[in-house]
Amino acid sequence: MKQVLAAALALAFLTSAASADPLPSWTEGAAKTRIVDFVETVTDPASPDYVTPAARIAVFDNDGTLWSEQPAYFQLIYAVDRLREQAQDDPAIMEQELFRSVLESDIDAVMEAGETGLVEVVMQSHAGPSVGEFIADVRDWLETARHPQTGLPYTDMTYQPMVELLRYLRDSGFSTYIVSGGGIHFVRALSDDAYGIPTEQVIGSTGKTRYEFNDGNPILAKDAGIVFIDDGPGKPVGIDGKIGKRPIFAAGNSDGDLQMLQWTSAGDGPRFGMIVHHTDGAREWAYDRDSPIGRLDKALDAAPESGWLVVDMAKDWQRIWTGQP
Amino acid sequence: MKQVLAAALALAFLTSAASADPLPSWTEGAAKTRIVDFVETVTDPASPDYVTPAARIAVFDNDGTLWSEQPAYFQLIYAVDRLREQAQDDPAIMEQELFRSVLESDIDAVMEAGETGLVEVVMQSHAGPSVGEFIADVRDWLETARHPQTGLPYTDMTYQPMVELLRYLRDSGFSTYIVSGGGIHFVRALSDDAYGIPTEQVIGSTGKTRYEFNDGNPILAKDAGIVFIDDGPGKPVGIDGKIGKRPIFAAGNSDGDLQMLQWTSAGDGPRFGMIVHHTDGAREWAYDRDSPIGRLDKALDAAPESGWLVVDMAKDWQRIWTGQP
User: Fold this and answer.
1) Of B145, B154, B231, B230, which is closest to residue B194 (Cα–Cα)?
2) pTM for the whole thing?
C-alpha cells in the first residue's frame, strides 16, 4: 500500500511539475508561445532541431533588458553618488568642470556631456579600491540607495518576466550569461542574488585591473582606464573571448545589442533573438528611437526580417518589476 | 531476493568506486597523498575546511604544466609552420629580416629575438582568418604535425598524470580552468579533446578580434595586435576578468605562474599550490632556473615558504605522456 501511495504521489508531483507554468508573469499569447515552443523544440531529443546542453548558451543584455535603465543607467547613478563622497575627501575633484557640474546639477550634466562624460565620471568614481572593496561598496549602495522616481531599491526594479525566463532556460539545461555594456564588477555585485547568474557568467565592460603583491597580501586594484567596452560590436567579441561558443538565444533592448543579436541569429540551426521594447509608459517608461538611454532604432528595424521577437512590455508582461509594490 | 541482489550490487559498486585509484599514474608517496588529502578535506561536509562546489575553482597553466613546451612552445612551432605557408603566397614576408631569419634558420632565430620576436611571429602568422577558420586550421595542424624530437603528435605529449588530476578534481565537484600564456583560440582548439575543458573555461592571451557584419554573414576576424597577455601578473587579472572568484587550487611550472600561485594561496581557507618541476631528462626534459622556455626560478624559491607542492616529475610520475609509445 505504501508503495502504491508513493507511486501516486510521485506521479502527482511529475504531472504538477510538467503542467506548472514556467512563465507566469508573461501574458498568454504569441510572445510567450514562441518562447516556450523554442525551448521545447531545442530540448526535445526527438526533434531535428534538438540542441545538446553544452550548446544551449543564452545571452542577456542587462540595462533595459533585465532591469530598468531610466532616467539614467543605475551604474551611473551609483558613480555620481560615489563621486560626491570622493569630492568630500578630495576637493580637487570639484575643480574639474565636468565633475563640478555633475555634482551641482546631478546626472543631467553627465548625459549632456555624452559618452565621453559618462566614461570619465565612471572611471574617476570607480578607480582606487580593490575589486573586492568595490563590489562590497556597490552592494552597500544597492542596500541603501533608492530610485529617484519610484523610491524602490534598484534591485527591486529587475524585471519579473525576465527573471522567470532566465530560470526557465536554466531549468531547461541552458547556461545563462549576462553580456552588459555596464561594468563587469558592478554587474557581478548583483548578478547572483538578482538573477541567479554566477560571476563566471557575467561579461561586461572592463576597466584596468592591476595585480599588486602588496607584501604577501596580494590585491587586484581597480585603476582608471578602460580596456574593453562590451557594447555594440564589442558584444560578439566579448562573447567569443569569454564563452568561445556562439549563443543560440540572445535578448537585448537597444541598438547596443544589435551585433549580439546578429551574431547569435546567423548561426546554423535553431536561433532565438528577442528585443524588449519599452512600450509601457504607465508602469515603466515608454521609449525607443529618440531616447539617449537605450536607443532602439536600427535593431527595431532589423527585427522583422531577422525573425526576432519584439516583446511589447505593456501587452506581453503581466507584471514588470520583481519588487513591484 | 531481487532487491537484496540489487542492494548488494549497489554496495559493491560504491565500494569499488571509492577504492578505485583516481591518480594511477602518480607514484604512491608524499605528493600524491597531499593532493588526495586536500581533495578529500575540501569535499567533506563534516570538515571545517569544507568548500562548497561553487567555490571549488582550480586553475592550470598549460605549456609545461599540462603538456610539454620544449624545444619551444608548441604554439610557436605552429606559428612558424603557418608563417612558412603564408610566405609562399606572399613573398613580401621574406623581405622582413625577422621573418626571413626565422624561416631560414627555424625557431632558434625566434628564441634569439626574445619575447618581441616571438610576439611578432605569432601576430603575423595568426592574423587574417576568422576565429572559426583559425581553430579549424590549428586542429588540422595538430592532426598532421609531429614533434621534431619525439615524432609524436603534439596532443600525445599532454601529461597523463595531469589529465588524471583534472578528471579527479572535476569528479570531486571542481571547475577546472586553463589559464595559459598561450593564445586563447589556440588552446581552445585542443582543450576539450585533450583535457575535457570546454571553451568557456579557457583563459589565455588574446589578440584583437574584430566583428564584421559581412553582408548578413557576420564573422569574428583575427587582427594583428594583442589586447591581453595572460602571463605573470596578467594571470590573476585574467582569472578575475573571466571567473570573478579566487581559485582554491592552482598549478603551474614557471615564473610566469608565480602571481597566479600567490593570488590563489593568499585567500582564506584551504588552498593548494602546485609546481610541476621538470626533473626528468630521460623521459622528458630537465630544466628550471636557466631555461629560456619555462624558466622556473623565483617561483621555485617561493615554494617552500608558500607551502606549494613541488612535483618531481622523475620521481612522482609513473608515466609522462598520454601518448607515450
Assistant:
1) B154
2) 0.93
Chains A and B: how many Cβ contacts under 8 Å? 86
Chain B contact for A259 (CB, 8 A cutoff):
yes
Specify the pLDDT at position A1.
46
Residue keyed to cell 522583422 = A304
Name the closest residue on chain B to residue A203, using Cα atoms: B242
Which residues, including other chains, have CB under 8 Å from residue B317's CB and lie 6 or more apart?
A: B25, B26, B27, B159, B160, B161, B280, B311
Task: Note whether B200 contacts A: Cβ–Cβ < 8 A.
Answer: yes
Chain B positions in Cβ-Cβ contact with residue A229 (cut-off 8 Å): none
A196 backbone dihedrals φ, ψ, rounded to 5°: 70, 25
- CB of B210 within 8 Å of a chain A CB? The answer is yes
pLDDT digits (tens, 9 = 90+) for B273-313: 999 999 999 999 999 999 989 999 999 999 999 999 999 99
CB under 8 A, 24+ apart: contacts of B7-14: none
Strands B219-228 and B202-212: antiparallel
| Model confidence pLDDT, tens digit, residues B50-67 | 999 999 999 999 999 999
ipTM of the complex: 0.92
Report the range of poorest mean pLDDT among A164-173, A214-223, B167-176.
Answer: A214-223
Residue B19: CB atoms within 10 A of its CB come to: 7
- Other Cβ atoms less than 10 A from the Cβ of B117: the count is 18
The answer to whether the CB atoms of A241 and B209 lie below 8 A apart is: yes
One-letter amino acid at B205 equals S
| List of chain A residues whose C-beta atoms are within 8 Å of the C-beta of residue B240 | 131, 209, 220
Contacts of A262 in chain B (CB under 8 A): 213, 216, 218
A71: cis peptide before it, omega within 30°?
yes
Q: Does B244 touch chain A (CB under 8 A)?
A: yes
At B168, list the grid cell: 579527479
Segment (H or E) for B157 = none
CB A306 within 8 A of CB A274: no
Domains in chain A, please, with CATH?
Answer: 22-69+158-207+226-316 (3.40.50.1000)
Q: Tell me whether residues B233 and A211 touch, CB distance under 8 A.
A: yes
**With an 8 Å Cβ cutoff, is B141 touching chain A?**
no
Question: Which chain A residue has its CA at the smallest distance from B199's CA?
Answer: A244
Q: How far apart are CA A222 and CA A210, in angstroms?
A: 7
Inter-chain residue contact A210 with B236, CB threshold 8 Å: no
C-alpha–C-alpha distance, residues A202 and A59, integer Å: 10
pLDDT band at A118 (very low <50, low <70, confident <90, very high): confident
User: Three-class SS of residue B55?
Assistant: helix
Nearest chain B residue to A302, by CA: B216
Place of cell 598549478: B251
Q: What grid cell was written down for A176? A: 545563462
Question: How far A123 CA sits from the closest chain B CA (Å)?
Answer: 17
